Amino acid sequence: MSDIEKQRNMYVQQYKSQIRELEGFIRINNNKITNLRGSSFVRDYINTTTETIQNQNKIYEDEIQELNKKIISINVGNSDLELKEKKQTIKAIQNKNETIKKEKKEMKINHKQQQQKVYNKQNIERKNDRQHYKDMNYALRHFYKAEDTLPNYMRRNLADMPNNKGYIWKGVYFYGDLPAEDDKDSMLLFEKPSKDVLLIHEWKEDTYNVFKKMGSNRKELIKSEYRHSLHLSKIHNKKYHV
Question: Is residue 84 part of a domain?
Fold first, then answer.
């Protein structure tokens, strides 16, 4: 399809859309007239209002007639010069808008440094707020999914576990329902990455250890690292952690 054909098609579709809109207005007005004639209003009011609506419809019909003429003119190629001029006008407006946009951008760049810092800070804060909201929703959905699929034996065991022991299931920490044991600066969580493997995560005041247990074999230390004091007692009143 050539460029001029694209132009023709664009304007024809535009005019057809306007015609459909005007026809809709006429239908609405005709319904108003029908409702008026069946109403109990004073006859003079009905006649005056009906005449006003009919005059409005006549304007709409004239506009439709003009639009149909334009469509015919476009389809036979009589409006090609006009379309070309319109395209040039639109292009000129677009260029002008681009120039204005560029000038505005340059003005923003030349603003005082402090104003720019404030603007950037606000953008960063809004972005961080959106990301924080997104992360919270993701974590909440992930938690609900993990909680729904928590194995029954884990759920039963949690009821008899202290609050500084529990399970890791699908990345979510589930703590026991009972009060924490005396050693509030330690925590022990069990994780089953597969059927025959048990991982034991052990947090103490300044260390984090991971033990691996295969079946009935003895557990073996597979990871150990020093950590700053975690103040684990602060989380012992919680039941879950994502």
Answer: no
Q: Which of 33, 34, 65 is nearest to 52 (CA)?
A: 33
Cα separation, 113 vs 110, in Å, equals 8
Q: Is the pTM of this model over 0.70?
A: no
Q: Specify whether the backbone of 221 is left (phi greater than 0), alpha (psi in -120 to 50) or beta.
A: beta
Taking a C-beta distance cutoff of 8 angstroms, is the pair 71, 16 a contact? yes
Q: For residue range 81-110, list pLDDT tens digits in order.
A: 676 777 778 788 888 888 888 888 887 777
Same domain as 158, residue 141 = no
Domains in the chain, number: 3
Long-range contacts of range 57-64, CB-CB < 8 Å, 24 or more positions apart?
57/26, 57/29, 57/30, 60/22, 60/23, 60/25, 60/26, 60/29, 61/26, 63/18, 63/22, 64/19, 64/22, 64/23
User: Rounded mean pLDDT of 164-184?
Assistant: 87
Q: CB neighbours of 196 closer than 8 A, spacing ≥ 6?
A: 214, 215
β-sheet bridge partners, residue 169: 172
Q: Do 187 and 141 sit in the same domain of this protein?
A: no
Of 66, 57, 73, nearest to 23 by C-alpha is: 57
Summary mean pLDDT of the chain? 85
Say how many residues make up the chain.
242
